[in-house]
Every structure is written in structure tokens, then in C-alpha cells.
């Protein structure tokens, strides 16, 4: 029998970085046919590698009795039931830190694109409208103050950039972040009322579902600009569309959506939104680093050295050990 540990891949992970490195050391199953692989070999699976397209639920883990580790490609692991993994003694890893600066770069790009209407200006020029009239004057960053929702590692990288832009910064998160000089708001509605620009960079999942709703958008107000580089689930998307249509807020820049890759026509048809296809970390450089961290976690785990980057729900060594 093949002594290599069996890993279940829930789809393609990163066929130029991850799979070629795993292949010599592991038996890879799944990919295009997860259901078939689980039905045939579920009892042998010791690791799951996922990119989040197929959720790693408690029900899936129940069919993998030898499961030890779920390695998530991505810092956000809202598609993995980490609490259930913890109950089962399964460690979950993600890919933190290696994408902080990349996502923060893209966030500032999306902020500038939205406030200064960069894609709209480009469309205007291409449509041949420049010769008849200059592009209409619009909003600025110069009179804005920014509220970050989430002040984790990526949030802090965004805040450093905003500080260099000379913008006032405040933030909301469940607990104040240590060593952060900005004002902390325990209540999101209060933050939304006090700023005119909100940037969402917090984890998805049940705890934050629908956090930005009609009330928060109303508090942000008619000058309001919403930037979301977190998860689509954090925003009540119909409420956002209604707010953009009614002028409750001014504009939005979105890299993430409720039902990716499906983006509501109501958003696609609007001119006061900038829409990106979830590209926050999507560069050769950073995706390679993320892929390498997935590989490093699996290699470390299966040589008995523990995970490199376990998530908060499954600390290593385990609590009480
Ligand atoms: C990836 C992300 O798009 O890291 C994350 O949380 O959202 C992205 O970097 C995704 O996880 C995998 O494709």
C-alpha cells in the first residue's frame, strides 16, 4: 500500500505552486469530484486542502474519521467550520500575514478608484466624451475621515497607508487592538455616524453576517462611501443596493459579494460603484506565498512538528495540553 498520507482537495488549489509540491509526499484525491472521492476514500483522508469554494462543514468532516488537519488557502476561513473542527480535534490552518501588504495596496487602489471615479473617467474617455466636455468634478479624499471596520493585521496595513495619505482614522472592532493609536468605537453605528468613509476588513462568518445593514448605511449618510475588501456576507447586499439607489450613501467600492462570482445586475448597472472580481490578494507574488504557506503547514504537520499558522479556534499546542 502507498504509505503517503491522503489529502482531499476541494477543487483545484493552485496547480503551479501547491499541487506539484504536495504530489511527491501525499496522495491527492478529490479535485473535480469531491463527492466521489469522499465516497470511495473518505475513511483514509488525513488532511483537507481547500480554497473555500466548497464549504468544509461538520457533516463533511464526519465522513472523514481519520481527518487531522484542514489547510485553508486564504487568510479568511469562513467556509471552514473551525468550531466543529476544534470539537473533533482537527487543526485548521490559514495563510495570514503573507498577503497583508498586497490586500492593503488593493484597498487603497479601490478607495481611490471609488472616490475619484477612476474607472468611470476611463470609460468616459473611451466613449469619446472628453472632446465635448471635461469629466465632471467629483468627490475627494481631502475632506474625508475614514472608519475601519476590523483592525487586524490587514486593517493595520491599510491604516498605515491612510495615515500616510494624511487622513483621520478611527475604527470599530469587538475589542480594541493593542498598540493602535486610533480611536476605537465599541459601537459600529457610532463610528458610521462620525466618519463618511467606511472600509470593511474583518472576518466573515456567522458572527459578522449582515453587520452593515440599512441602519449603518443611513448613519454613514449621503456623503458616505463604503469599501468592502472583507467578505460579501458582512454587508446586507439588498440594503446596500437600496442605499445606493436612494442616495442614502454616495458610492461603494466592492471586491467581495454575497454570492460570488454572481454580482447582482442592480450593482452592475450602477455608475456610483466600482466592482472588482475578488482580487485583493490576486497577484503571482502573493498567491505563491500563500500557496507555499499551505504546503509548509501540511509538511510541518505530517512530520510531527505541528501547524505553522493554526487559526484561533484550534491553537497549537491545543488548550489544556
Ligand atoms: C482568496 C481571500 O481569494 O485570503 C483570503 O481570505 O479572500 C483571498 O486571498 C481566497 O481565500 C482563495 O482563493
Automatic annotation (TrEMBL):
Keywords from the named record: NAD, NADP, Oxidoreductase
Molecular function in Gene Ontology: glyoxylate reductase (NADPH) activity; hydroxypyruvate reductase [NAD(P)H] activity; NAD binding
Keyword NADP attached: yes
Pfam families from the UniProt entry: 2-Hacid_dh (PF00389), 2-Hacid_dh_C (PF02826)
Protein name as catalogued: Lactate dehydrogenase-like 2-hydroxyacid dehydrogenase
InterPro entries found in the cross-reference section: D-isomer_2-hydroxyacid_DH, D-isomer_2_OHA_DH_cat_dom, D-isomer_DH_NAD-bd, NAD(P)-bd_dom_sf
Segments forming domain D-isomer specific 2-hydroxyacid dehydrogenase catalytic: 44-311
Domain D-isomer specific 2-hydroxyacid dehydrogenase NAD-binding: 108-280
Any one GO cellular component localisation term in the record: cytosol
UniProt family annotation: Belongs to the D-isomer specific 2-hydroxyacid dehydrogenase family.
Organism whose genome encodes this protein: Aquabacter spiritensis
Amino acid at each position: 500500500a502507498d504509505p503517503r498520507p491522503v489529502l482531499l482537495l476541494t477543487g483545484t488549489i493552485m496547480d503551479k505552486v501547491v499541487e506539484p509540491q504536495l504530489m511527491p509526499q501525499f496522495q491527492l484525491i478529490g479535485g473535480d469530484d469531491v463527492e466521489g472521492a469522499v465516497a470511495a476514500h473518505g475513511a483514509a483522508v488525513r488532511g483537507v486542502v481547500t480554497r473555500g469554494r466548497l464549504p468544509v462543514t461538520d457533516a463533511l468532516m464526519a465522513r472523514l474519521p481519520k481527518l487531522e488537519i484542514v489547510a485553508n488557502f486564504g487568510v479568511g476561513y469562513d467556509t471552514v467550520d473551525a468550531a466543529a473542527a476544534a470539537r473533533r480535534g482537527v487543526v485548521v490552518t490559514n495563510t495570514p500575514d503573507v498577503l497583508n501588504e498586497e490586500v492593503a495596496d488593493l484597498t487603497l487602489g479601490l478607495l481611490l478608484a471609488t472616490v475619484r471615479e477612476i474607472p468611470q473617467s476611463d470609460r468616459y474617455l473611451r466613449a469619446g466624451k472628453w472632446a465635448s466636455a471635461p469629466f465632471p468634478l467629483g468627490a475627494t479624499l481631502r475632506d474625508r475621515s475614514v472608519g475601519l471596520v476590523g483592525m487586524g493585521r490587514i486593517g493595520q496595513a491599510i491604516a498605515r497607508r491612510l495615515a500616510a495619505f494624511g487622513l483621520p482614522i478611527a475604527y470599530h472592532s469587538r475589542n480594541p487592538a493593542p498598540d493602535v493609536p486610533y480611536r476605537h468605537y465599541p459601537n459600529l453605528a457610532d463610528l458610521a455616524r462620525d466618519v463618511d468613509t467606511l472600509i470593511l476588513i474583518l472576518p466573515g462568518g456567522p458572527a459578522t453576517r449582515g453587520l452593515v445593514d440599512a441602519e449603518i448605511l443611513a448613519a454613514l449618510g449621503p456623503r458616505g462611501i463604503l469599501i468592502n475588501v472583507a467578505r460579501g456576507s458582512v454587508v446586507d447586499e439588498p440594503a446596500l443596493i437600496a442605499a445606493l439607489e436612494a442616495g442614502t450613501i454616495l458610492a461603494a467600492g466592492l471586491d467581495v459579494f454575497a454570492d460570488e462570482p454572481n454580482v447582482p445586475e442592480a450593482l452592475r448597472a450602477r455608475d456610483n460603484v466600482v466592482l472588482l472580481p475578488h482580487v485583493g490578494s490576486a497577484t503571482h507574488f502573493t498567491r505563491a506565498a500563500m500557496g507555499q504557506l499551505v504546503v509548509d503547514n501540511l509538511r510541518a504537520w505530517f512530520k510531527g512538528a505541528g501547524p505553522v499558522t493554526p487559526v484561533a479556534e484550534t491553537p497549537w499546542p491545543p488548550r489544556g495540553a
